[in-house]
Design goal:
Blueprint lengths: L2 H13 L1 H36 L5 E4 L12 H8 L5 H4 L19 E4 L2 E2 L3 E2 H8 L4 E13 L6 E7 L4 H6 L6 E4 L9 E5 H7 L6 E4 L2 E9 L10 E4 H9 L9 E2 L1 E6 L2 H15 L4 E3 L3 H40 L1 H9 L4 H33 L2 H5 L11 H18 L1 H8 L3 H7 L1
Parallel strand pairs: 6-11, 8-10
Antiparallel strand pairs: 1-13, 1-14, 2-3, 2-5, 4-12, 5-6, 5-13, 7-10, 8-11, 9-10
Helix pairs in contact: 1-12, 2-10, 2-12, 2-14, 9-10, 10-14, 11-15, 11-16, 12-14, 12-15
Length: 433
């Protein structure tokens, strides 16, 4: 296809303006509709994946208490309080750091998760988990059960880090405050209280509570619902360290008893849990089962998307073939005349390919502009009735595929009727036309 054929093709297209305009318009409308449908489909799939993909993608890991204290002698317990670990305990202490940090009131108080007693872990272990593939965030968390000496009531205190996604999904998050305000960097001697505990004990915003002989002010009430890690009170991690140190034999040193974890999405959640269990050398994990059907739904959406894109590509091919068939059918007389005046078959094919290429390229380009303007004037969020900031609604791969298939299928589909006409004698074609 050289410049001469292109110039001849342009002259021919200009000569029959109505037919050319009809072809351009048909291409533009068809391609713009295909691109809009593709953009809406891809956007919907991304939105579904974003919603479903974060369903149940959080879990909690900890090490259960070794349970050997009952078998220790009084001498071993005394040494344990001084940090001397009995030989029988050492084999269980690979990740545990809390043998010398047992509670003073060991029968009532201690490090727990819900109703389970736990060992202590280093915060460095949480940092290691944070580096695992598929982990979005891992956050150390303290939970300690206290006894109120005035009435012997038991309650738990959770110590959390602000701004950690794993805290938002596994424990008391900022969106769970129903009264008052959430903790801040300056929330010293301030606590949040679970709504159920507040109701049962007559607590409200501004109430004062005593924890480990210190007075704290309630600044917010939280409806924690079905969070995996639930405490009666929540405070800053540093504040929890301070009050817990009052109730154990030796102070905490960059330690936590729970690690909250948030996975990237449901498709990798199972693998993340396996990796964490290998690192912890323990199977104590608390999670919801929602991630499993969610991950299956993501895979189904992915397959349906590719099937739909394949259908769109086939539709674009059929559309361009139909347009080019109509175009070439009208040109049978012209092809026969070119053959009659001595044009070779290859020259006729090049001429028809040049015209088909110009029509399909300009028509597709116009369709891209129309679809772009349409989606700018009426965003996909308004079409679907959802709001989600994912940048451009166009998926580059699918959009380029639609345009390229439309152009090349249009060009080469023009060969079919041309080859059919070339097989006949020019006089036979001219008689019928």
């Amino acid at each position: 296809m050289n410049l001469d054929f292109l110039l001849c093709a342009i002259r021919e297209l200009i000569r029959n303006k109505r037919r050319t305009l009809a072809l351009f318009t048909g291409y533009a409308i068809a391609v713009s509709l295909l691109l809009v449908i593709t953009a809406v489909t891809v956007f919907s799939k991304v939105h579904q994946t974003a919603v479903i993909g974060t369903t149940g993608t959080h879990f909690v890991t900890w090490l259960p208490s070794c349970g050997d204290l009952s078998s220790l002698t009084e001498e071993e317990l005394a040494k344990l309080a001084l940090g001397i670990i009995p030989e029988k305990c050492k084999q269980n202490c690979e990740n545990c750091t809390g043998c010398n940090k047992k509670p003073r009131d060991i029968l009532n108080e201690g490090f727990v998760i819900n109703t389970n007693t736990t060992r202590l872990l280093t915060i460095d272990l949480a940092n290691e988990i944070n580096k695992l593939p598929g982990v979005r965030n891992a956050s150390p968390f303290l939970m300690f059960r206290f006894r109120d000496p005035t009435d012997n009531k038991l309650f738990t205190v959770g110590g959390l880090f602000l701004g950690h996604l794993a805290v938002e999904t596994n424990s008391c998050g900022t969106n769970e405050i129903i009264e008052g305000q959430y903790l801040s960097e300056n929330s010293f001697n301030k606590v949040l209280v679970d709504d159920g505990y507040a109701l049962n004990n007559g607590l409200k915003v501004g109430s004062k509570v005593i924890i480990a002989e210190e007075e704290f002010e309630v600044i917010g009430i939280a409806a924690t619902g079905a969070d995996p890690v639930k405490a009666e009170f929540y405070m800053l991690f540093s504040e929890a360290e301070r009050v817990i140190n009052r109730r154990i034999h030796n102070p905490l040193e960059n330690e936590a008893n729970i690690i909250l974890v948030e996975s990237v999405n449901g498709t990798v959640h199972g693998q993340v849990m396996e990796d964490v269990m290998k690192l912890m050398k323990n199977d104590s994990i608390l999670t919801s089962g929602c991630y499993y059907p969610a991950s299956k739904a993501i895979g189904l959406n992915e397959k349906l998307l590719w099937v739909f894109i394949a259908v769109i590509l086939v539709s674009s091919i059929l559309m361009t073939v139909k347009l080019q068939l109509s175009f070439i059918a009208e040109r049978q007389r012209d092809v026969a005349i070119l053959k009659a005046i001595g044009w070779s078959n290859s020259s006729v094919i090049k001429q028809m390919l040049s015209e088909s290429f110009i029509v399909s390229a300009i028509g597709c380009g116009t369709g891209v502009l129309i679809s772009g303007l349409l989606l700018c004037v009426v965003p996909i969020e308004h079409i679907l009735g959802i709001e989600m900031n994912i940048g451009s609604p166009f998926n580059a791969l699918s959009m380029v595929a639609v345009v390229m298939f439309s152009i090349f299928s249009g060009v080469f589909s023009g060969l079919i009727p041309v080859l059919f006409v070339l097989k006949k004698h020019p006089l036979e074609v001219l008689r019928r036309c």
